[in-house]
Specification:
The protein has helices at residues 13-24, 36-43, 54-64, 73-76, 100-109, 129-137, 156-161, 173-181, 195-226, 230-238, 259-272, 278-302, 333-343, 374-378, 398-404, 419-424, and strands spanning 5-9, 28-33, 67-71, 82-85, 118-121, 143-146, 166-170, 190-193, 314-318, 347-351, 368-371, 384-386, 409-412, 428-430. The protein is of the alpha/beta class. An 8-stranded mixed sheet has the order 3-2-1-4-5-6-7-8, with helices on both faces. Helix 9 (195-226) runs parallel beside helix 12.
């Protein structure tokens, strides 16, 4: 396999993972960022992003000399035959993606790119971006390609090195094959297509997952109404090879850095093409409803019988990140629901394994006090709410939890815990789409009614 000289612009979740993984495949990779302190930390091998195996991969790349970090995109692209744009594309107020950072990179590197270089968009970008960037570059000797990422936060290294597929799109077959060759060592299906199709594939995949998640949350609500069990229903669904078991678990709603942004961007793209994508709009509406429904459930289970059931009620919270395995709070359903609970008068104390208050304190979540111990979060609380499916939550000492709680009740928005273990500890368990388990094991006294 030919060793390429690669520049990666942006060292967030996508850029840092891509840079470290490409270096591990034997390429020379220069990663650029605009933050001098971040560049200095990464050059010492200090990775603050919580991603399994990423710190080790970065250090291995530094030790081999195949991975380096520099300040500024212009410095990074001097010797590059391939440039990956991995800068952020946040959602703007009107629902469009903010392409300011992408355009700024193009303007910075336009006159520094080597002839024959291929510029690759790795960030999630609107359909038609490759064509627009080609015009903005104004360099006929530089090709633009799309190579969308399909990485899950928390497992991004594994997903990069063991992909379900690699998608490369470009108007030039030569440019697409150039990018595809970077992945020659990976045992993965390679799909080469036009740039617009590659850009749309990323949106189509994420929006389908959002629809699937919203669908199962509606089924969970129906289960609660008719006395069915969502676990039994989804197990049967998952055994149907046409459906599959992934993304069939109910929860507090979907969130994170991708699905909310990508669904809205897809809606904007559909509207621009004069298409009424009502199915996707319904999935977004269902997601909003799910957060409201979980908020109401918490108020009903943990609150008082007054007109303002959460006013002055202390709640313990387990998990704030949008999923386990990451420290990302962006558009987390946990933080959205927690802030609504706070607005309704609740006092929230939260514990999350990824959010230490020590050397790297998390960004504050309005209305929530973050502590470093789950039992401290539960102490004196009128109930616990589990938002994030961290594996270690299953192994908590639930007898100790029952002793420190003011009222032994938990709302498990992920159906993550073992109801029988909680029942033995005399903690009432309320899941999603299932009947609550509120009675203790035989021989134990019933919990005191509120």
């Amino acid at each position: 396999m030919r060793r390429h000289n690669i520049a990666v612009i942006g060292t967030g979740y996508v850029g840092l993972t891509a840079g470290a993984c490409l270096a591990s495949l034997g390429h020379r990779v220069v990663c650029a960022d605009v933050d001098p302190a971040k560049v200095e930390r990464l050059s010492r091998g200090e990775v603050t992003i919580r991603e399994e195996s990423l710190p080790e991969l970065v250090r291995a790349g530094l030790d081999s000399g195949l991975l380096t970090f520099v300040l500024g995109a212009g410095e990074a692209v001097r010797e590059a035959d391939t440039v990956f744009s991995c800068v952020g594309t946040p959602m703007s107020q009107d629902g469009d993606l903010d392409m300011t950072a992408v355009d700024a990179v193009i303007d910075e590197i336009r006159d520094r790119l080597r002839p024959g270089c291929v510029l690759v968009t790795k960030s999630t970008v609107p359909v038609g971006t490759a064509a627009r960037l080609t015009r903005r570059l104004g360099r006929p000797d530089v090709q633009v390609a799309s190579n969308p990422e399909f990485l899950r936060e928390g497992t991004s290294v594994h997903d990069f090195l063991h992909p379900d597929r690699v998608v490369v799109g470009a108007e030039s077959r030569e440019a697409a094959e150039h990018v595809a060759a970077l992945y020659a060592k990976l045992d993965a299906p390679m799909m080469i297509t036009d740039a617009a199709s590659a850009e749309l594939i990323k949106y189509a995949a994420n929006c389908f997952l959002a629809v699937k998640l919203s669908y199962v949350n509606v089924i969970a609500e129906l289960c609660e109404r008719v006395g069915a069990d969502i676990g039994q229903v989804t197990t049967a669904l998952g055994k149907d090879h046409r459906i599959g078991g992934a993304f069939l678990r109910p929860g507090p709603g979907w969130g994170g850095s991708c699905l909310p942004k990508d669904t809205r961007a897809m809606l904007r793209a559909a509207e621009s093409a004069d298409i009424d994508f009502r199915m996707l709009r319904a999935a977004i509406d269902v997601n909003v409803h799910q957060r409201e429904r979980i908020t109401d459930k918490i108020a009903r289970v943990c609150g008082t019988d007054s007109a303002a059931p959460l006013d002055g009620v202390r709640l313990g919270v387990l998990g704030l990140t949008f999923k386990a395995g990451t420290d990302d709070l962006r558009d987390s359903p946990a933080t959205a629901i927690a802030q609504e609970l706070s607005r309704l008068g609740a006092e929230l104390v939260a514990y999350d394994p990824a959010l230490s208050t020590g050397s790297h304190p998390p960004e504050p979540v309005p209305g929530v006090t973050i502590v470093d111990d789950p039992y401290q979060a539960a102490k004196g609380a009128a109930g616990l709410v589990l938002f994030t499916e961290w594996p270690e939550f299953r192994d908590l000492d639930w007898g100790r939890m029952a002793a420190v709680l003011d009222r032994a009740v938990i709302v498990d928005t992920r159906n993550h815990l073992d109801p029988e273990a909680l029942r033995t500890a005399r903690i009432a368990w309320h899941g999603v789409g299932v009947r609550p388990v509120v009675h203790p094991a035989p021989g134990l006294p019933s919990p005191e009614p509120r």
